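PT: before anyone asks, these are the final sequences, not the draft ones from last week. 613 residues across everything. Please model them as a single complex and drop the result in this thread when it's through.
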Amino acid sequence: MAFQLYKSEVSGSFYSWRGAAWIVAASMIFSLVAYLLLTDKELSLLDQGEMLFTLGEIIISLGIIMATTSASSAISAEIESGTFESLLLTPITARQIAFQKLLSIVTTWLLLYVVSIPYLVAVSSGTNLSISAVFYVGLYGTLLVIAFSSLTITFSSKLKSSKNSVMISLMILLIMLAPSLFFATSLKKTGFGTAIEDINPVSHAMNSLDSVLVDNQQTLPEQAIHILPVVIFTIVCLLILTNYTRRFEVKPIE
Amino acid sequence: MAAANTESLHRSQIKSNNGIVTSNLSKAYRDFKAVNSLTLNVEPEDIFGFLGPNGAGKTTTIRMLCGLVLPSSGTGKVAGFDIVKDSVKIRSIVGLLPESSGFYGWMNAQEHLVHFALLYKIEPHIAKKRAQDLLEKVGLAEKAHVPISYYSRGMRQRLGLARTLINDPKIIFLDEPTLGLDPSGQLQIRKILLELNREKGVTIFLSSHTLSEVSSLCNKIAILDRGTLLAQGSIGELRKRAGISQKILVRVTDTPEARQQLLNLPFPSSTTNEGAGLISVKINTPIESSNKNSANYDINDIIDFCMKKGLQIYDIQRPEISLEEIFFKMTGLPPTLESIDSPFSEEERGMKSKGARLH
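LR: through. Structure below.
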Protein backbone atom coordinates (compact mmCIF):
# COMPACT_ATOMS: atom_id res chain seq x y z
CA MET A 1 0.00 0.00 0.00
CA ALA A 2 3.09 2.18 0.25
CA PHE A 3 2.80 3.08 -3.41
CA GLN A 4 -0.96 3.43 -3.54
CA LEU A 5 -0.84 6.99 -4.84
CA TYR A 6 1.68 5.97 -7.50
CA LYS A 7 -0.53 3.08 -8.61
CA SER A 8 -3.57 5.29 -8.73
CA GLU A 9 -1.66 7.96 -10.71
CA VAL A 10 -0.44 5.42 -13.25
CA SER A 11 -3.86 3.83 -13.67
CA GLY A 12 -5.44 7.30 -13.76
CA SER A 13 -3.07 8.33 -16.57
CA PHE A 14 -3.91 5.31 -18.63
CA TYR A 15 -7.62 5.30 -17.85
CA SER A 16 -7.71 8.90 -19.01
CA TRP A 17 -7.01 9.94 -22.57
CA ARG A 18 -3.85 11.79 -21.58
CA GLY A 19 -1.44 8.91 -21.01
CA ALA A 20 -2.71 6.80 -23.87
CA ALA A 21 -2.70 9.80 -26.21
CA TRP A 22 0.97 10.46 -25.43
CA ILE A 23 1.94 6.91 -26.33
CA VAL A 24 -0.14 6.87 -29.53
CA ALA A 25 1.17 10.30 -30.58
CA ALA A 26 4.75 9.27 -29.79
CA SER A 27 4.43 6.07 -31.83
CA MET A 28 3.07 8.03 -34.77
CA ILE A 29 5.89 10.59 -34.56
CA PHE A 30 8.55 7.86 -34.30
CA SER A 31 7.03 5.99 -37.26
CA LEU A 32 6.94 9.15 -39.36
CA VAL A 33 10.50 10.16 -38.47
CA ALA A 34 11.87 6.64 -39.04
CA TYR A 35 10.00 6.39 -42.34
CA LEU A 36 11.30 9.76 -43.54
CA LEU A 37 14.87 9.00 -42.44
CA LEU A 38 14.88 5.74 -44.29
CA THR A 39 12.94 6.64 -47.43
CA ASP A 40 13.14 10.40 -48.03
CA LYS A 41 15.53 11.18 -50.88
CA GLU A 42 17.53 13.83 -49.03
CA LEU A 43 17.25 12.51 -45.47
CA SER A 44 18.31 9.02 -46.54
CA LEU A 45 21.59 10.49 -47.72
CA LEU A 46 22.45 11.21 -44.08
CA ASP A 47 25.01 9.06 -42.37
CA GLN A 48 23.23 6.31 -40.39
CA GLY A 49 24.75 7.61 -37.15
CA GLU A 50 23.26 11.04 -37.84
CA MET A 51 19.88 9.46 -38.54
CA LEU A 52 20.05 7.70 -35.19
CA PHE A 53 21.14 10.90 -33.47
CA THR A 54 18.15 12.79 -34.96
CA LEU A 55 15.77 10.06 -33.82
CA GLY A 56 17.38 9.94 -30.36
CA GLU A 57 17.10 13.71 -30.05
CA ILE A 58 13.41 13.53 -30.93
CA ILE A 59 12.74 10.70 -28.44
CA ILE A 60 14.45 12.56 -25.56
CA SER A 61 12.79 15.89 -26.43
CA LEU A 62 9.38 14.27 -26.62
CA GLY A 63 9.99 12.55 -23.28
CA ILE A 64 10.95 15.82 -21.59
CA ILE A 65 7.96 17.65 -23.06
CA MET A 66 5.63 14.87 -21.92
CA ALA A 67 7.17 14.90 -18.44
CA THR A 68 7.02 18.67 -18.14
CA THR A 69 3.38 18.97 -19.19
CA SER A 70 2.32 16.09 -16.91
CA ALA A 71 4.33 17.36 -13.94
CA SER A 72 3.06 20.91 -14.31
CA SER A 73 -0.38 19.84 -13.13
CA ALA A 74 0.79 17.16 -10.68
CA ILE A 75 0.15 19.19 -7.54
CA SER A 76 -1.64 22.27 -8.85
CA ALA A 77 -4.46 20.21 -10.40
CA GLU A 78 -5.02 18.58 -7.00
CA ILE A 79 -5.07 22.02 -5.39
CA GLU A 80 -7.41 23.40 -8.06
CA SER A 81 -9.84 20.49 -7.75
CA GLY A 82 -9.73 20.55 -3.93
CA THR A 83 -8.37 17.02 -3.53
CA PHE A 84 -4.98 18.08 -2.21
CA GLU A 85 -6.24 18.77 1.31
CA SER A 86 -7.76 15.27 1.45
CA LEU A 87 -4.46 13.76 0.28
CA LEU A 88 -2.51 15.68 2.88
CA LEU A 89 -4.89 14.39 5.52
CA THR A 90 -3.82 10.81 4.95
CA PRO A 91 -0.74 9.56 6.80
CA ILE A 92 1.46 9.83 3.71
CA THR A 93 3.80 12.79 3.86
CA ALA A 94 3.94 15.68 1.41
CA ARG A 95 7.27 14.41 0.18
CA GLN A 96 5.84 10.96 -0.49
CA ILE A 97 3.00 12.54 -2.47
CA ALA A 98 5.48 14.48 -4.62
CA PHE A 99 7.81 11.54 -5.17
CA GLN A 100 5.04 9.09 -6.03
CA LYS A 101 3.80 11.60 -8.60
CA LEU A 102 7.35 11.87 -9.94
CA LEU A 103 7.59 8.09 -10.14
CA SER A 104 4.36 7.86 -12.13
CA ILE A 105 5.71 10.39 -14.66
CA VAL A 106 8.97 8.43 -14.95
CA THR A 107 6.87 5.29 -15.53
CA THR A 108 5.08 6.99 -18.43
CA TRP A 109 8.47 7.99 -19.84
CA LEU A 110 9.72 4.42 -19.50
CA LEU A 111 6.71 3.20 -21.46
CA LEU A 112 7.38 5.79 -24.15
CA TYR A 113 11.03 4.72 -24.17
CA VAL A 114 10.08 1.05 -24.58
CA VAL A 115 7.87 2.03 -27.52
CA SER A 116 10.83 3.88 -29.09
CA ILE A 117 13.29 0.94 -28.84
CA PRO A 118 12.11 -0.90 -32.01
CA TYR A 119 12.49 2.34 -33.98
CA LEU A 120 16.05 2.85 -32.67
CA VAL A 121 16.90 -0.75 -33.55
CA ALA A 122 15.34 -0.39 -37.03
CA VAL A 123 17.21 2.81 -37.85
CA SER A 124 20.52 1.43 -36.54
CA SER A 125 20.25 -1.91 -38.32
CA GLY A 126 23.47 -2.97 -39.99
CA THR A 127 25.65 -0.87 -37.64
CA ASN A 128 27.23 -1.53 -34.23
CA LEU A 129 25.27 1.39 -32.76
CA SER A 130 22.02 -0.34 -31.68
CA ILE A 131 23.00 -1.08 -28.08
CA SER A 132 24.67 2.29 -27.56
CA ALA A 133 21.70 4.12 -29.06
CA VAL A 134 19.26 2.27 -26.81
CA PHE A 135 21.49 2.71 -23.74
CA TYR A 136 22.33 6.41 -24.11
CA VAL A 137 18.85 7.47 -25.15
CA GLY A 138 17.54 5.59 -22.11
CA LEU A 139 20.17 7.06 -19.79
CA TYR A 140 19.85 10.70 -20.84
CA GLY A 141 16.11 10.48 -21.33
CA THR A 142 15.57 9.07 -17.84
CA LEU A 143 17.91 11.55 -16.14
CA LEU A 144 16.42 14.57 -17.92
CA VAL A 145 12.85 13.37 -17.37
CA ILE A 146 13.57 13.02 -13.63
CA ALA A 147 15.22 16.45 -13.54
CA PHE A 148 12.52 18.33 -15.45
CA SER A 149 9.69 16.53 -13.67
CA SER A 150 11.19 17.36 -10.26
CA LEU A 151 11.61 21.00 -11.20
CA THR A 152 8.12 21.24 -12.66
CA ILE A 153 6.47 19.51 -9.70
CA THR A 154 8.16 22.11 -7.50
CA PHE A 155 6.73 24.90 -9.68
CA SER A 156 3.36 23.19 -9.68
CA SER A 157 3.22 23.14 -5.88
CA LYS A 158 4.72 26.58 -5.48
CA LEU A 159 2.55 28.37 -8.05
CA LYS A 160 -0.63 26.37 -7.29
CA SER A 161 -1.82 26.99 -10.85
CA SER A 162 -1.46 24.47 -13.66
CA LYS A 163 -1.57 27.24 -16.27
CA ASN A 164 1.28 29.21 -14.71
CA SER A 165 3.44 26.20 -13.96
CA VAL A 166 3.06 24.80 -17.49
CA MET A 167 4.00 28.21 -18.92
CA ILE A 168 7.11 28.65 -16.76
CA SER A 169 8.24 25.04 -17.16
CA LEU A 170 7.85 25.09 -20.93
CA MET A 171 9.74 28.36 -21.08
CA ILE A 172 12.67 26.86 -19.13
CA LEU A 173 12.50 23.73 -21.27
CA LEU A 174 12.56 25.78 -24.47
CA ILE A 175 15.55 27.80 -23.27
CA MET A 176 17.42 24.59 -22.46
CA LEU A 177 16.46 22.79 -25.65
CA ALA A 178 17.12 25.79 -27.90
CA PRO A 179 20.92 25.45 -28.22
CA SER A 180 20.66 21.84 -29.35
CA LEU A 181 17.65 22.25 -31.60
CA PHE A 182 17.99 25.75 -33.02
CA PHE A 183 21.63 26.92 -32.72
CA ALA A 184 23.56 26.68 -35.99
CA THR A 185 26.93 24.92 -35.81
CA SER A 186 28.75 28.24 -36.35
CA LEU A 187 26.91 29.81 -33.39
CA LYS A 188 27.71 26.81 -31.19
CA LYS A 189 31.40 27.40 -31.87
CA THR A 190 31.42 31.05 -30.74
CA GLY A 191 32.38 31.94 -27.16
CA PHE A 192 28.74 32.61 -26.28
CA GLY A 193 27.58 29.36 -27.85
CA THR A 194 30.28 27.34 -26.07
CA ALA A 195 29.49 28.97 -22.71
CA ILE A 196 25.79 28.22 -23.09
CA GLU A 197 26.50 24.63 -24.09
CA ASP A 198 28.91 24.15 -21.17
CA ILE A 199 26.33 25.08 -18.57
CA ASN A 200 23.32 23.52 -20.26
CA PRO A 201 22.68 19.89 -19.22
CA VAL A 202 20.38 19.31 -22.21
CA SER A 203 23.18 20.37 -24.56
CA HIS A 204 25.54 18.00 -22.76
CA ALA A 205 23.09 15.14 -23.27
CA MET A 206 22.62 15.93 -26.97
CA ASN A 207 26.36 16.47 -27.56
CA SER A 208 27.07 13.16 -25.86
CA LEU A 209 24.53 11.42 -28.06
CA ASP A 210 26.12 13.06 -31.08
CA SER A 211 29.59 11.91 -30.07
CA VAL A 212 28.37 8.34 -29.39
CA LEU A 213 26.30 7.89 -32.52
CA VAL A 214 28.08 10.08 -35.07
CA ASP A 215 31.70 10.05 -33.81
CA ASN A 216 31.46 6.48 -32.51
CA GLN A 217 32.88 7.29 -29.02
CA GLN A 218 30.73 4.76 -27.26
CA THR A 219 32.40 4.02 -23.91
CA LEU A 220 31.26 5.50 -20.62
CA PRO A 221 34.66 7.07 -19.72
CA GLU A 222 34.63 8.90 -23.05
CA GLN A 223 31.21 10.31 -22.20
CA ALA A 224 31.86 11.02 -18.51
CA ILE A 225 32.44 14.70 -19.23
CA HIS A 226 28.86 14.92 -20.56
CA ILE A 227 27.20 12.47 -18.16
CA LEU A 228 28.46 14.24 -15.04
CA PRO A 229 26.74 17.63 -15.65
CA VAL A 230 23.47 15.84 -16.47
CA VAL A 231 23.72 13.76 -13.28
CA ILE A 232 24.54 16.88 -11.23
CA PHE A 233 21.59 18.75 -12.77
CA THR A 234 19.29 15.82 -11.94
CA ILE A 235 20.54 15.65 -8.35
CA VAL A 236 20.10 19.42 -7.91
CA CYS A 237 16.53 19.23 -9.24
CA LEU A 238 15.75 16.31 -6.91
CA LEU A 239 17.19 18.25 -3.97
CA ILE A 240 15.04 21.26 -4.83
CA LEU A 241 11.95 19.03 -4.87
CA THR A 242 12.99 17.25 -1.65
CA ASN A 243 13.59 20.52 0.13
CA TYR A 244 10.44 22.22 -1.10
CA THR A 245 8.22 19.28 -0.24
CA ARG A 246 9.63 18.98 3.28
CA ARG A 247 6.29 20.34 4.34
CA PHE A 248 3.33 21.51 2.31
CA GLU A 249 1.00 23.90 4.01
CA VAL A 250 -2.59 24.42 2.99
CA LYS A 251 -2.85 28.16 2.45
CA PRO A 252 -6.04 30.14 3.00
CA ILE A 253 -7.98 31.23 -0.06
CA GLU A 254 -6.66 34.62 -1.11
CA MET B 1 6.83 -8.69 21.14
CA ALA B 2 8.22 -5.24 21.81
CA ALA B 3 6.50 -3.94 18.67
CA ALA B 4 3.20 -5.44 19.85
CA ASN B 5 3.61 -3.79 23.25
CA THR B 6 4.37 -0.44 21.64
CA GLU B 7 1.34 -0.82 19.37
CA SER B 8 -0.93 -1.69 22.30
CA LEU B 9 0.48 1.25 24.29
CA HIS B 10 -0.15 3.51 21.28
CA ARG B 11 -3.76 2.26 21.02
CA SER B 12 -4.45 2.60 24.74
CA GLN B 13 -3.04 6.11 24.65
CA ILE B 14 -5.41 6.97 21.83
CA LYS B 15 -8.37 5.32 23.54
CA SER B 16 -7.80 7.00 26.88
CA ASN B 17 -7.16 10.38 25.37
CA ASN B 18 -9.34 11.36 22.46
CA GLY B 19 -9.33 14.96 23.57
CA ILE B 20 -7.95 18.13 22.08
CA VAL B 21 -5.96 20.67 24.04
CA THR B 22 -4.44 23.88 22.75
CA SER B 23 -2.49 26.52 24.58
CA ASN B 24 -2.03 30.03 23.17
CA LEU B 25 -2.22 28.62 19.64
CA SER B 26 -1.73 31.35 17.06
CA LYS B 27 -1.40 31.59 13.31
CA ALA B 28 -0.40 34.72 11.47
CA TYR B 29 -0.21 35.31 7.73
CA ARG B 30 2.18 38.25 7.42
CA ASP B 31 0.50 40.98 9.49
CA PHE B 32 -2.87 39.26 9.64
CA LYS B 33 -3.55 37.20 12.75
CA ALA B 34 -5.92 34.46 11.65
CA VAL B 35 -5.92 32.80 15.08
CA ASN B 36 -4.80 34.61 18.20
CA SER B 37 -3.71 32.82 21.40
CA LEU B 38 -6.38 30.17 21.27
CA THR B 39 -6.65 28.01 24.37
CA LEU B 40 -9.16 25.21 23.97
CA ASN B 41 -9.98 22.11 25.94
CA VAL B 42 -12.08 19.44 24.28
CA GLU B 43 -12.68 16.42 26.48
CA PRO B 44 -12.72 12.89 25.01
CA GLU B 45 -16.17 11.96 23.61
CA ASP B 46 -17.32 15.57 23.56
CA ILE B 47 -19.34 16.93 20.68
CA PHE B 48 -17.70 20.29 20.53
CA GLY B 49 -19.31 23.12 18.57
CA PHE B 50 -16.98 25.70 17.10
CA LEU B 51 -18.80 28.88 16.19
CA GLY B 52 -17.79 32.15 14.70
CA PRO B 53 -18.62 34.53 11.89
CA ASN B 54 -16.93 34.19 8.47
CA GLY B 55 -13.19 34.79 8.75
CA ALA B 56 -13.13 34.12 12.49
CA GLY B 57 -10.31 31.58 12.12
CA LYS B 58 -12.32 28.37 12.50
CA THR B 59 -10.96 26.63 9.39
CA THR B 60 -7.38 27.71 10.16
CA THR B 61 -7.75 26.27 13.68
CA ILE B 62 -9.03 22.97 12.31
CA ARG B 63 -6.19 22.85 9.79
CA MET B 64 -3.64 23.47 12.53
CA LEU B 65 -5.15 20.73 14.69
CA CYS B 66 -5.00 18.28 11.77
CA GLY B 67 -1.38 19.15 11.00
CA LEU B 68 -2.17 20.80 7.67
CA VAL B 69 -0.99 24.23 8.76
CA LEU B 70 1.93 24.99 11.06
CA PRO B 71 1.08 27.26 13.98
CA SER B 72 3.06 30.49 14.28
CA SER B 73 3.21 30.06 18.06
CA GLY B 74 1.60 28.13 20.87
CA THR B 75 1.08 24.41 21.30
CA GLY B 76 -1.63 21.89 20.67
CA LYS B 77 -2.27 18.22 21.28
CA VAL B 78 -4.77 15.99 19.55
CA ALA B 79 -5.33 12.59 21.19
CA GLY B 80 -2.17 13.24 23.15
CA PHE B 81 -0.05 13.86 20.04
CA ASP B 82 1.72 17.12 19.35
CA ILE B 83 0.22 18.91 16.34
CA VAL B 84 3.65 19.85 14.96
CA LYS B 85 5.89 16.88 15.77
CA ASP B 86 3.33 14.09 15.43
CA SER B 87 1.19 15.37 12.58
CA VAL B 88 1.47 12.11 10.63
CA LYS B 89 0.24 10.11 13.67
CA ILE B 90 -2.59 12.57 14.17
CA ARG B 91 -3.65 12.25 10.54
CA SER B 92 -3.88 8.48 10.87
CA ILE B 93 -6.42 8.68 13.72
CA VAL B 94 -8.52 11.72 12.81
CA GLY B 95 -10.98 12.38 10.03
CA LEU B 96 -11.63 15.79 8.51
CA LEU B 97 -14.52 16.84 6.35
CA PRO B 98 -13.37 20.16 4.86
CA GLU B 99 -15.82 22.89 3.94
CA SER B 100 -15.32 22.23 0.25
CA SER B 101 -13.83 18.87 -0.48
CA GLY B 102 -12.67 17.82 -3.91
CA PHE B 103 -13.09 14.48 -5.60
CA TYR B 104 -11.61 12.58 -8.49
CA GLY B 105 -14.47 12.92 -10.93
CA TRP B 106 -13.34 9.94 -13.00
CA MET B 107 -13.63 7.56 -10.04
CA ASN B 108 -16.87 6.21 -8.66
CA ALA B 109 -17.74 6.48 -4.98
CA GLN B 110 -16.61 2.93 -4.20
CA GLU B 111 -13.23 3.41 -5.93
CA HIS B 112 -12.77 6.78 -4.28
CA LEU B 113 -13.26 5.38 -0.78
CA VAL B 114 -11.09 2.33 -1.44
CA HIS B 115 -8.37 4.62 -2.84
CA PHE B 116 -8.31 6.66 0.36
CA ALA B 117 -8.56 3.55 2.54
CA LEU B 118 -5.43 2.18 0.87
CA LEU B 119 -3.65 5.46 1.50
CA TYR B 120 -4.44 4.83 5.17
CA LYS B 121 -2.74 1.44 4.73
CA ILE B 122 -5.95 -0.51 5.25
CA GLU B 123 -5.94 -4.02 3.76
CA PRO B 124 -7.73 -4.10 0.37
CA HIS B 125 -10.48 -6.56 1.41
CA ILE B 126 -11.21 -4.57 4.60
CA ALA B 127 -11.14 -1.34 2.59
CA LYS B 128 -13.72 -2.68 0.15
CA LYS B 129 -16.03 -3.87 2.91
CA ARG B 130 -15.69 -0.63 4.84
CA ALA B 131 -16.39 1.42 1.72
CA GLN B 132 -19.59 -0.54 1.07
CA ASP B 133 -20.76 -0.14 4.68
CA LEU B 134 -20.07 3.58 4.69
CA LEU B 135 -21.81 4.15 1.37
CA GLU B 136 -24.84 2.39 2.82
CA LYS B 137 -24.63 4.48 5.96
CA VAL B 138 -24.58 7.80 4.07
CA GLY B 139 -27.27 6.68 1.64
CA LEU B 140 -25.13 6.36 -1.47
CA ALA B 141 -25.10 2.57 -1.86
CA GLU B 142 -27.30 2.70 -4.95
CA LYS B 143 -25.02 5.22 -6.65
CA ALA B 144 -21.78 3.53 -5.58
CA HIS B 145 -20.74 2.77 -9.15
CA VAL B 146 -21.73 6.08 -10.77
CA PRO B 147 -18.78 8.40 -11.61
CA ILE B 148 -18.50 11.16 -9.00
CA SER B 149 -18.59 13.82 -11.73
CA TYR B 150 -22.33 13.10 -12.02
CA TYR B 151 -22.97 13.63 -8.29
CA SER B 152 -24.95 16.58 -6.94
CA ARG B 153 -23.51 18.81 -4.22
CA GLY B 154 -25.47 17.00 -1.54
CA MET B 155 -24.27 13.60 -2.75
CA ARG B 156 -20.68 14.84 -2.76
CA GLN B 157 -21.11 16.08 0.80
CA ARG B 158 -22.35 12.62 1.85
CA LEU B 159 -19.41 11.01 0.07
CA GLY B 160 -17.09 13.47 1.81
CA LEU B 161 -18.44 12.29 5.16
CA ALA B 162 -17.95 8.66 4.15
CA ARG B 163 -14.34 9.45 3.21
CA THR B 164 -13.87 11.19 6.57
CA LEU B 165 -14.90 7.98 8.31
CA ILE B 166 -12.95 5.55 6.13
CA ASN B 167 -10.02 5.24 8.59
CA ASP B 168 -12.36 4.64 11.53
CA PRO B 169 -11.23 7.90 13.19
CA LYS B 170 -11.14 8.53 16.93
CA ILE B 171 -11.66 12.26 16.46
CA ILE B 172 -13.63 13.86 13.66
CA PHE B 173 -13.31 17.45 12.51
CA LEU B 174 -16.24 18.69 10.50
CA ASP B 175 -16.30 22.03 8.74
CA GLU B 176 -19.88 22.82 7.78
CA PRO B 177 -20.90 19.17 7.37
CA THR B 178 -24.50 19.78 6.33
CA LEU B 179 -23.78 22.52 3.81
CA GLY B 180 -25.74 21.88 0.62
CA LEU B 181 -27.78 19.03 2.08
CA ASP B 182 -31.56 18.82 2.00
CA PRO B 183 -33.35 18.65 5.38
CA SER B 184 -33.52 14.85 5.38
CA GLY B 185 -29.83 14.66 4.49
CA GLN B 186 -29.03 17.03 7.34
CA LEU B 187 -30.97 14.85 9.77
CA GLN B 188 -29.24 11.73 8.49
CA ILE B 189 -25.80 13.26 8.98
CA ARG B 190 -26.69 14.39 12.51
CA LYS B 191 -27.93 10.88 13.28
CA ILE B 192 -24.68 9.35 12.02
CA LEU B 193 -22.63 11.75 14.13
CA LEU B 194 -24.64 11.05 17.26
CA GLU B 195 -24.33 7.30 16.68
CA LEU B 196 -20.57 7.57 16.27
CA ASN B 197 -20.30 9.58 19.44
CA ARG B 198 -22.54 7.35 21.54
CA GLU B 199 -21.56 3.95 20.21
CA LYS B 200 -17.88 4.40 19.46
CA GLY B 201 -17.02 7.30 21.74
CA VAL B 202 -15.75 9.38 18.84
CA THR B 203 -14.89 12.96 19.76
CA ILE B 204 -16.51 15.38 17.33
CA PHE B 205 -15.25 18.87 16.61
CA LEU B 206 -17.97 20.62 14.65
CA SER B 207 -17.60 23.97 12.98
CA SER B 208 -20.89 25.22 11.64
CA HIS B 209 -22.88 28.31 10.84
CA THR B 210 -26.11 26.45 11.51
CA LEU B 211 -26.66 27.42 15.11
CA SER B 212 -29.64 25.12 15.54
CA GLU B 213 -27.43 22.21 14.46
CA VAL B 214 -24.73 23.13 16.95
CA SER B 215 -27.18 23.64 19.81
CA SER B 216 -28.95 20.33 19.10
CA LEU B 217 -25.75 18.26 18.80
CA CYS B 218 -23.06 19.78 20.96
CA ASN B 219 -22.48 19.48 24.68
CA LYS B 220 -19.78 22.16 24.60
CA ILE B 221 -19.39 25.21 22.44
CA ALA B 222 -16.64 27.70 21.75
CA ILE B 223 -17.21 31.05 20.09
CA LEU B 224 -14.41 32.56 18.08
CA ASP B 225 -14.35 36.06 16.62
CA ARG B 226 -11.53 37.61 14.58
CA GLY B 227 -9.18 34.86 15.68
CA THR B 228 -9.84 35.32 19.38
CA LEU B 229 -11.75 32.94 21.61
CA LEU B 230 -14.66 34.76 23.20
CA ALA B 231 -15.89 31.91 25.40
CA GLN B 232 -16.17 28.15 25.70
CA GLY B 233 -18.38 25.89 27.76
CA SER B 234 -21.88 24.49 27.83
CA ILE B 235 -24.78 26.64 26.60
CA GLY B 236 -25.62 27.42 30.24
CA GLU B 237 -22.07 28.58 30.91
CA LEU B 238 -22.02 30.65 27.75
CA ARG B 239 -25.33 32.25 28.74
CA LYS B 240 -23.80 33.35 32.00
CA ARG B 241 -20.71 34.65 30.24
CA ALA B 242 -22.86 36.54 27.76
CA GLY B 243 -24.90 38.05 30.60
CA ILE B 244 -28.22 36.88 29.19
CA SER B 245 -30.86 36.34 31.83
CA GLN B 246 -33.27 33.41 31.74
CA LYS B 247 -36.82 34.57 31.05
CA ILE B 248 -39.94 33.15 32.67
CA LEU B 249 -43.30 33.67 31.01
CA VAL B 250 -46.35 33.64 33.24
CA ARG B 251 -49.89 34.04 31.98
CA VAL B 252 -52.43 35.02 34.62
CA THR B 253 -56.18 35.56 34.49
CA ASP B 254 -57.01 39.18 33.66
CA THR B 255 -58.85 40.73 36.63
CA PRO B 256 -58.71 44.30 38.03
CA GLU B 257 -57.02 42.92 41.18
CA ALA B 258 -54.44 41.07 39.12
CA ARG B 259 -53.65 44.24 37.16
CA GLN B 260 -53.15 46.10 40.43
CA GLN B 261 -50.84 43.40 41.84
CA LEU B 262 -48.80 43.24 38.67
CA LEU B 263 -47.97 46.93 38.98
CA ASN B 264 -45.97 46.16 42.12
CA LEU B 265 -44.09 43.05 41.05
CA PRO B 266 -40.77 42.71 42.90
CA PHE B 267 -39.10 41.24 39.77
CA PRO B 268 -37.88 43.03 36.62
CA SER B 269 -40.71 42.33 34.23
CA SER B 270 -42.87 43.51 31.38
CA THR B 271 -46.60 42.98 31.10
CA THR B 272 -48.77 42.67 27.99
CA ASN B 273 -52.48 42.16 27.65
CA GLU B 274 -52.93 39.03 25.58
CA GLY B 275 -56.71 39.30 25.23
CA ALA B 276 -58.99 36.32 25.82
CA GLY B 277 -58.93 37.17 29.52
CA LEU B 278 -55.21 36.67 29.97
CA ILE B 279 -52.28 38.88 30.89
CA SER B 280 -48.79 37.81 29.91
CA VAL B 281 -45.88 38.68 32.19
CA LYS B 282 -42.29 38.28 31.08
CA ILE B 283 -39.91 38.08 34.06
CA ASN B 284 -36.14 38.23 33.76
CA THR B 285 -34.46 35.99 36.30
CA PRO B 286 -31.10 37.20 37.58
CA ILE B 287 -27.90 35.95 36.02
CA GLU B 288 -26.29 33.50 38.42
CA SER B 289 -23.32 35.16 40.01
CA SER B 290 -21.06 34.82 42.95
CA ASN B 291 -22.35 38.12 44.33
CA LYS B 292 -24.36 37.11 47.39
CA ASN B 293 -26.01 40.52 47.65
CA SER B 294 -27.65 40.28 44.24
CA ALA B 295 -31.34 39.34 44.06
CA ASN B 296 -31.83 35.62 43.68
CA TYR B 297 -35.13 34.03 42.68
CA ASP B 298 -36.36 31.32 40.39
CA ILE B 299 -39.58 29.86 39.01
CA ASN B 300 -40.72 28.57 42.48
CA ASP B 301 -40.40 32.02 44.02
CA ILE B 302 -42.54 33.43 41.21
CA ILE B 303 -45.21 30.76 41.74
CA ASP B 304 -45.17 31.45 45.51
CA PHE B 305 -45.53 35.18 44.91
CA CYS B 306 -48.50 34.69 42.56
CA MET B 307 -50.24 32.37 45.03
CA LYS B 308 -49.72 34.81 47.90
CA LYS B 309 -51.10 37.73 45.91
CA GLY B 310 -54.07 35.73 44.66
CA LEU B 311 -53.02 35.76 41.03
CA GLN B 312 -54.56 32.91 39.05
CA ILE B 313 -51.79 31.31 36.99
CA TYR B 314 -53.02 30.08 33.59
CA ASP B 315 -49.63 28.66 32.59
CA ILE B 316 -45.95 29.23 33.27
CA GLN B 317 -43.02 28.57 30.94
CA ARG B 318 -39.27 28.84 30.97
CA PRO B 319 -38.28 29.10 27.28
CA GLU B 320 -34.84 27.81 26.28
CA ILE B 321 -32.28 30.49 25.60
CA SER B 322 -31.30 30.14 22.00
CA LEU B 323 -27.72 29.84 20.90
CA GLU B 324 -28.50 32.64 18.44
CA GLU B 325 -29.06 35.04 21.32
CA ILE B 326 -25.77 34.08 22.93
CA PHE B 327 -23.89 34.16 19.62
CA PHE B 328 -25.11 37.60 18.59
CA LYS B 329 -24.58 39.00 22.07
CA MET B 330 -21.02 37.71 22.23
CA THR B 331 -19.91 38.55 18.71
CA GLY B 332 -21.78 41.86 18.64
CA LEU B 333 -23.04 40.96 15.18
CA PRO B 334 -26.46 42.03 13.93
CA PRO B 335 -29.01 39.22 13.85
CA THR B 336 -29.59 37.24 10.67
CA LEU B 337 -32.41 37.95 8.23
CA GLU B 338 -34.54 35.17 9.71
CA SER B 339 -34.83 36.98 13.01
CA ILE B 340 -35.65 40.34 11.43
CA ASP B 341 -39.34 41.09 11.15
CA SER B 342 -40.66 39.99 7.80
CA PRO B 343 -42.35 42.70 5.71
CA PHE B 344 -45.18 40.20 5.12
CA SER B 345 -47.87 39.50 7.66
CA GLU B 346 -48.04 36.07 9.23
CA GLU B 347 -51.23 35.49 7.29
CA GLU B 348 -49.46 36.33 4.02
CA ARG B 349 -46.70 33.94 4.97
CA GLY B 350 -49.34 31.30 5.69
CA MET B 351 -48.23 30.90 9.26
CA LYS B 352 -51.09 31.88 11.49
CA SER B 353 -54.54 32.04 9.98
CA LYS B 354 -56.74 29.03 10.46
CA GLY B 355 -57.72 29.30 6.81
CA ALA B 356 -54.13 28.75 5.77
CA ARG B 357 -53.80 25.74 8.04
CA LEU B 358 -56.98 24.23 6.65
CA HIS B 359 -55.62 24.51 3.14
